[in-house]
DNA sequence: AGCGCTATGTACGCTAGCGTGCCGACGCTT
DNA sequence: AAGCGTCGGCACGCTAGCGTACATAGCGCT
């Protein structure tokens, strides 16, 4: 197995493709480094590229107005950005903000859409991915409405940990407040509660997950359901 | 802003198709009557049919658990049910509840997926529809989180009015409470406020829209944005 | 060592909405 | 005309979370 293949292998949507499809993809993609805070897409902007994160991850955020924004989805190595290209639409409804620096494979919108025409396996897999995202969006709507900050915070930390592949996350309360659409002080209280239960430890912009199972326990059910849905629709082959 | 429904008496996704595609569709679809309260899909159930409402409309509801449910989308003659079939997935994530009785065109999952293979115009239009739904799901998440009951109620009444094609809606506060994921008493207060402003009138299970423009004024911006998005992505040809 | 920026802790009063329960009014049935 | 089930009005205390403000504490920089 070549190291190049290993890199490709790192995005879960691209694993185990037929050789011809993989080669086709590799021929037209490029490796890019994404840095924290980078904005890949602005809402309603035309998409020029699709991204397949390898060890980076990106938050997808609804911007209602300048005061009200809310993260509704996240894409790491299990997903992609620019999925609306799969539907033949060259615009994105959401703000895409790089939340974990790292690398990603990038492909131009045009090449990507060409490629899909002769990559039925990939195409089908990406349609399944869109279905997963739709269900997650719907669940998010209910979760944000009904669940308490503490449970939502726990869920968010778990999702981030999965994508960062590390116990240690660089996050401020301020940033978390923006993601969850709540006050910074609200995050502080929830974080104190989680820390008091020994589930996390944090200091000045770094949060460490100490007890992953306990955190799952503390999170709302939505975390487990998200995982189960992904596993069902996009199993590791 | 005017609503985008009043002109047509057929399903808007099916209008202005090339003759070949329309004939193909008509050959395999059937007309069905949907009655209030009927459940067309249960979450995670296998979909057997796609529906294209004509003068009926259907609520799509996330069921978190027995206490917590929330409407996240609505499909009337501007949309369809079973859009995941367009993605090649034969299951639905949401509860589909008939909210306005009436007729719809129905087509079996198998026929539908066959048909799409030789109906490029329809296929493309339905992919655009999925994009619209995705954006609406994302916006809903933020709207339900940030906006007050009164504004959300106004928005919901407008959306329902558009799809019912009538000023008079048969709705109880109880039902509205379930849709918006709030208390019945919360709806009563919001409804009193809207009535006091002369925007609606209601009485024992019937709500009449008196001042549509005023109601738009009272609703959150999400209503206008939904309309604008649909108009942009799926214009009348 | 001291400065200053930023992250976090905390406290204040306030509001929206919750859960609940009760009552009256409407209107359908008999 | 009476009875009854459903619908809507309302009131109670309660909670989560808001907006705001200010204080402390860690950390990099000079």
TrEMBL record, chains A, B:
It holds the Pfam family HTH_Crp_2. It comes from the Bacteria. One of its GO terms (molecular function) is DNA-binding transcription factor activity. The keyword Glycoprotein does not apply. Residues 147-213 form the HTH crp-type domain. The keyword Transcription applies. Keywords: DNA-binding, Transcription, Transcription regulation. Signal peptide: none annotated. One of its GO terms (cellular component) is cytosol. PANTHER family: CRP FAMILY TRANSCRIPTIONAL REGULATORY PROTEIN, HTH-TYPE TRANSCRIPTIONAL REGULATOR ARCR. This is Crp/Fnr family transcriptional regulator. It comes from Vreelandella boliviensis LC1. The lineage of its organism: Bacteria, Pseudomonadati, Pseudomonadota, Gammaproteobacteria, Oceanospirillales.
């Amino acid at each position: 197995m070549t190291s190049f293949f290993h890199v490709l292998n790192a995005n879960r949507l691209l694993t185990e493709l037929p050789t011809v499809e993989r080669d086709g993809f590799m021929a037209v993609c490029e490796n890019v480094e994404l840095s924290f805070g980078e904005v890949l897409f602005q809402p309603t902007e035309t998409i020029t590229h699709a991204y397949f994160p390898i060890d980076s991850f990106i938050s997808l955020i609804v911007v209602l107005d300048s005061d009200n924004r809310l993260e509704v989805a996240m894409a790491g190595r299990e997903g992609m950005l620019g999925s609306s290209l799969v539907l033949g639409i060259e615009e994105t409804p959401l703000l895409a903000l790089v939340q974990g620096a790292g690398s990603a494979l990038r492909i131009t919108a045009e090449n990507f859409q060409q490629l899909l025409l002769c990559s039925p396996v990939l195409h089908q897999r990406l349609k399944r991915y869109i279905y997963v995202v739709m269900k997650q969006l719907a669940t998010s709507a209910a979760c944000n409405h009904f669940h308490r900050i503490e449970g939502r915070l726990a869920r968010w930390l778990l999702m981030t940990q999965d994508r960062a592949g590390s116990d240690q996350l660089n996050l401020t309360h301020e940033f978390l407040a923006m993601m969850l659409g709540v006050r910074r002080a609200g995050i502080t209280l929830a974080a104190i509660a989680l820390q008091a239960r020994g589930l996390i430890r944090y200091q000045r912009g770094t949060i460490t997950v100490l007890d992953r199972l306990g955190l799952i326990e503390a999170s709302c059910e939505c975390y487990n359901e998200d995982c189960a849905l992904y596993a069902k629709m996009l199993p590791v082959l």
